[in-house]
Structures are given as C-alpha cells and as structure tokens.
Amino acid sequence: MSNIAILGGGRVGGGLATALTRAGHTVTVADRSPGSAADAVRTAQIVINATPGDSSLERLTALREHLRGKILIDVSNATLDGPDGFPADLLYPGSSLAEQLQQALPETHVVKTLNTMLYSVMTAPTSLTQTPTAFLSGQDPEAKQIVRDVLADLGWHPDWITDLGGIETARATEASILFVPHVIRSTGFAPFAISLAR
Predict the structure, then answer these.
(1) Strand partners, 49
(2) Given this model, what pLDDT does residue 36 score?
(3) Which of 42, 89, 160, 167 makes the best surface tag, with the fewest CB within 10 Å?
(4) Would you say 9 and 31 are in contact if contact means Cβ atoms under 8 Å apart?
(5) Is residue 85 part of a domain?
(6) Number of structural domains found in the chain
(7) DSSP state, 117?
(8) Domain around 14
(9) 44: in domain
(10) CA distance linking residue 164 with residue 154, whole number of Å
(11) Is residue 56 a contact partner of residue 96, using CB atoms and an 8 Å limit?
C-alpha cells in the first residue's frame, strides 16, 4: 500500500480519495493552499493531479522540488470552455497537459490515465453495461506498472487497461474530452467512458 497525495478535492479527487482509502492506501487530499499541497506531496510516494486542467501546469510546476522522483498520475484535461461551461477547445493544441507537465517536471514520472470517462467511472468501472478502457501514457515502464496496480485497486481489470506508449500519446486521449459535451447534450448526464471494442 502507498502514501498517495491527491491534489484537488472536487468530485474527481474526492471520489478517488474515498476509493483508494477503502483499498488500504494512506491518502491525503490537499486543499487549494500552496502550503497544504507541498505538505501532502512531500510525504507521498504517488501524487494524483485532479486539479482543474487549465491551472494544473502552474500549480504543479510550483511543486517541482517536492515532486522530484515521484509518480504523478494526471487525470485532468486542459480545455477552454464555451459559453455553456462545457469544454469547447483544447488549451494545448498539438500537445497535451501531460506533455506540458512532463516537460516542466523532467525528474517526475508523469503517467496519464482515467481522463477519457466521466468521473464516477474512474472508481466504478463495472458500473457500465459495457467494459470501459483505461489508457496509459508515459515514459517510464516501472511507473506505468505501479499505476496499473493503483487502477486494479480501483476495480480495473488488467484486460481493460491499454498502454498507448510514451507521454506524447496523451494528446490523443486528452482530445477525447471534446466528445463529452456532445454526448451529454445527446443522451443526458449519465456515466460513460471511451472503450476499445475488439
């Protein structure tokens, strides 16, 4: 079991904190103050970024020293919202939040995952009628294996996890956020996830 710090205490961070605590991990959720985040990250082995994607890069870059050598699981998407509050465009076209974080934090092992679904599916993948897919993007194979173990503790079967390769592959999964507003307008606000059908 690991010491895990979660940055972001909203629906995403709160849900992950509850599920990971239930699985036996020691979890600390940092509030918005820089001091709280630094304290949480300092004692953690794994850090989960569940902060709003449009401010994640600035927030986490400020924690560079504390994040050195640690695994950073990035579950956020960096978007520009439209007038209705739904994602309308990508903040980093031609790149991704995960790539920007890895570039800014070269001594941190950034792994992108769980960003292609509504937040409730992250901790309850069996709640859907069809099998969802959790994608992994990152440079370090050992870090990705540890993230696989964390996903298993959240209920993800190994066959439901697809390793896409390096951190640059995160730009593909992050772009999938642009599906979300259209799906919600079409079918309503109900849990869903992107899935690979084979």
Answers:
(1) 7, 74
(2) 84
(3) 89
(4) yes
(5) yes
(6) 1
(7) B
(8) 3-187
(9) yes
(10) 20
(11) no
